[in-house]
Amino acid sequence: MSAGLAESPTALADRGELALGLPESYLAAGHTLGSWLTSTDHKRIAILYAISITVFFFLGGAAATMVRLELFTPKADVVGADTYNKLFTLHGVIMVWFFLIPSIPTTLGNFLLPLMIGARDMAFPKLNLASWYLNILGGLLTASAMLAGGIDTGWTFYVPYATVFSNSAVSLGVLGVFVSGFSTIATGVNVIATTHTLRAPGMTWFRLPLFVWALYTTSLIFVLATPVLAVTLLLVVAERAFDLPIFDPARGGDPILFQHLFWFYSHPAVYIMILPAMGVISEVITCFARRRVFGYTFMVYALLAIAVIGFFTWGHHMFTSGMSPFAALVFSFLSFIVAVPSAIKVFNWTATLYRGQIGFESPMLYALGFVGLFTVGGLTGLFLASVPIDVHVQDTYFVVAHFHYIMVGASVSAYFAGLHFWWPKVTGRMYPETWAKFAAILMFFGFNLTFFPQFIAGYLGMPRRYHVYPPEFQIWNVLSSSGAAVLAVAYLMPLGYLTWSVLFGERARNDPWNASGLEWRTTSPPPRENFLGKPEVLAEPYNYHPEGAPPVKDQPRIPAQGSLT
Amino acid sequence: MSAAEKLLLREPWDGLGLPEESALARQRAGATFGIWIFIASEVLFFGAIILLYTVMRLEHPDAFAAAARETNLVYGTLNTALLLTSGMLAAVASRMNEGAGARRTVLWCLAATAGLGLAFLAVKGIEYREDIGRHLVPGPGFPLPQPPAQLFFAVYWFATAIHGIHLAIGIGLVARLAILGWRDPAFLPDNPQVEVSLLYWGFVDIVWIFLYPLLYLPGRAG
Amino acid sequence: MLAWLMPEQASVQAPRVDAIFLALTAISGAIVLLVVGLVVAFSIRFRRGSKANRDALPSLVAREFEIGWTAATLFVFVFIFWWAASAEIRAYVAPKDAIEVHVVAKQWMWKTQSSNGAREINELHVPVGAPVRLILTSQDVIHSFYVPAFRLKRDALPGQQTETWFKATKTGTFHLLCTEYCGTDHARMLGRIVVMEPEDYARWLSAQPEGDDLAHAGERLFAERGCAGCHAPGSGVHAPGLAGLWGREIPLAGGRTATVDGAYVRDSILQPKRDVAAGYEPIMPSYDGLLSDGEIQELTAYIRALGAGPRASRTPGRPPLSSRVPGAARDRSPAMVPGAPVDDGPAPAGAATRP
User: Fold this and answer.
1) What superfamily does domain A35-520 belong to in CATH?
2) Chains adjacent to C (≥3 CB pairs closer than 8 angstroms)
3) Is the entire prediction scored with pTM above 0.80?
4) Which of A92, A462, B210, C44 has the greatest count of CB atoms below 10 A from its CB?
5) Interchain CB distance below 8 Å, A466 and C155
6) What would the DSSP string read from start to end of B114-171?
7) Which of C47, C81, C148 sits opposite A332 (nearest CB)?
8) A554 pLDDT band (50/70/90 cuts)?
9) Where do the Cytochrome oxidase subunit I profile domain residues begin and end (chain A) (predicted)?
10) What is the per-residue pLDDT for C320?
11) pLDDT tens-digit readout, B42-81
12) Domain C214-308 - what CATH class?
């Protein structure tokens, strides 16, 4: 079965390994486009997702670049009001639904979940492929809305603006998001069923890597929150297309009801973006500190607590909409409580470093950056949970800065940490380490330069979604826009050197980081069946040193590579 | 491994290295578990519609009662009866399918389930035509004076249409089982797809049991 | 430095919000320093191959640390919650003697109308030191009334009324911004709040033309829409009279009581069968959908005026409402045209000099 494939000149699998009689890698199992587009292999589907979210990431990023360019001066000098409104809507819709929500679960998660629990594939491989097609269909619908004139409602689609007043292609874009919602539900069902039914012998619940726990809790939110968004968006479409007066205040409808339904999904959606990131960071920090994770059970319960309590805090998006003071207090209280498990996780990561053998390879740099940015993002969440402060900063740049610290600073850093960490396993190639370190550091500073000034502008009172603004805010916007330029470079760099590494990078060993997870106990890249034999788990996760013994200094794991040539 | 079981066993369950008997059992458990998670998701989907309805009805109790009196109780009740009967037949089919003995009964039950589902859609279609004839569509020409009555009918059309789409998918699934089972005697017995499809049918059934009193019965007592 | 990083404080609420904000910033800063400090310290001390001690921790210590910092964060967070919540509750109810201002938002302008008759567009003049109650609604989409210097924000919703209040502590001109995205010219839906000394305000107010104020419009509606048929004195129908009713606590059928305020009047018009006054039959039809929000506001103002005696809703010391300056309200606002930039020059001493 491997005959035709081994001859292929583009096969990425190590020929030396093939010569040893090892099974061919999943990358070698077919080189036609059709072999990718019809594959039910979770690893190939992960690659498909990685390609599509990369396209969406740079599409959304281009819109953000235009937005920051416009905000360089207080006047409207690059684009007009309507174009600006369409740009920030495009940025929000694409980044939230077509990059951030699928980012880690469908790429790293899809690739690693079966490998980490010792399974051959996801529980429902065809459903897995279908979910990618749904995601692409949704993305195409939303992109065609852009061609049909764009959407100018903001990613929140607030009614009655989105239903009655907007003249843009709202229905098409909303339908796209609706369709992609089914893609995330399918992924969620698949992850939950896989974790329940396909764990290898010996892989008990409390031996699962924290990344698997993170995917599991994320999928609970996928399954239970996304349908509410789906209905809400469908109602918006029904109101626009069939003139059904669902939220129309002129006929007795209640626009606040839309906000409740929307945030019932969209607040947990923030946890959809951050929980998998937390999982990635737990894997990376333990590996490069050479230590067992500090407080494994607390880490698991913290994930579960965030997922559950996160369902009951949506009201803090609506403190200024005239909700009763009692409701505001309850939502405020729950929003403070949901921050406690996040704080526990930060302390545990920090404590994991204690008495470790810490190395500073690029995944670790991203992970350490994550801890700092997530701490800032999480703490500014407390400001927004306090009702009086929220009343002042709601819908200002303070909120913008806060959620970018969580969703971009933390989640995207974690995505890059995971991408670099597992890159050798996924592609079988090493990337140039020096370039990666440089990109990681540049990203950290570029990010802070972009978004920290927005906290100040926000507290000073600069509202979001303004394409012109009072001149006293200009200094902060200039700082922010300059940071955005740095950030853009930092995001483009991995695109370059990672692509280079796929073609020219050094072959990766099976376990280049000496990591402990089950996913490293197979070839790089893994075969279609994932493992050579039947894996069996005998020990706790993060078994970097014997219980009670100090971690030892490892050999340097990879050769330092200074240039792309 | 027998031919039938080889047919039933799918990725990734065929790669577990287990005896076919237990591999198939695990596949069935996995499939059933998966559909239950999906049903949990669907509960939230319809839950949101029912929440929407509840809030609107609390805000406009009189208009909702007046509007609900305009729905056709006869068609609604007839449809409830059709769907409940179909649910019973679906349960019988699912139960009889454990083991190979009762293939004919299972086939008949599946066919009748799908048939009753089609009858439901037909009745619903007649009812829709009548509703449209009476201008019970929100917009100009709506017969009731209170604007919130239009809200009721917005929810009515939305909820019944969404339920109808779900039911149509269910009919497709059940009819597919019946046709494949009729062609290939080995297809149905112990096939996990039967239980999965019929669990979905049961869920769509139960949704109607909630929609019926909410849409047809308000304002009709006393 | 701090003044540069924080907006001006111009209301009683502003210093309270800033106090919580600064305390929270201090706590957060300490936590960030702690985390970043530990990460950096550990990274240096336990870098790969360093000579630091790496013996295993006793598991008891690990557990105690875990419980310790969980309890500590919980305590700190609940404390902040309590502080913020108490400040919020204190600020919730507007003082009884507040000037009432109705704000109607529409794409892309603010229309304000005081209970003392002044009507403005994209502007609101208020006296310093007097509480002002805002009753907001919108004619189209959701807007949000935001005055950074007052730390004040409240959404204006179509079909519903929301309320908030403030007391300015400083004279001057302050930004009024829309913070709920509302379409094309969202960023240009600006206005200004002009806070004046009471004497200047009195002078400004006396220069305002007296238009149809809310109560007068309400009086007309009361007759036109048939309310008077039942509720006017001497009507043959057994319906409660409305004079002197405002602000009183009245018994309801079923033994409950209700205070006659804006919400009660609104409910009684839209859902008359819900809270029927004791001793009356529930015979009033619902006006849900038959009256616009603006009309309900006008009727409410009329009933309120009946209660307090005709045209005497102003507290003593406020200027009388009598002047006839030519020119419609439109001409007095700097930014009637949606999209036009608001002129942020110094506040005029009085509008009487302007055409």
Assistant:
1) Cytochrome c oxidase-like, subunit I domain (1.20.210.10)
2) A, B
3) yes
4) A462
5) no
6) HHHHHHHHHHHHHHHHHHHHTT-SSSTT-S-SSHHHHHHHHHHHHHHHHHHHHHHHHH
7) C81
8) low
9) 36-538
10) 28
11) 999 999 999 999 999 998 898 999 999 999 999 999 999 9
12) mainly alpha
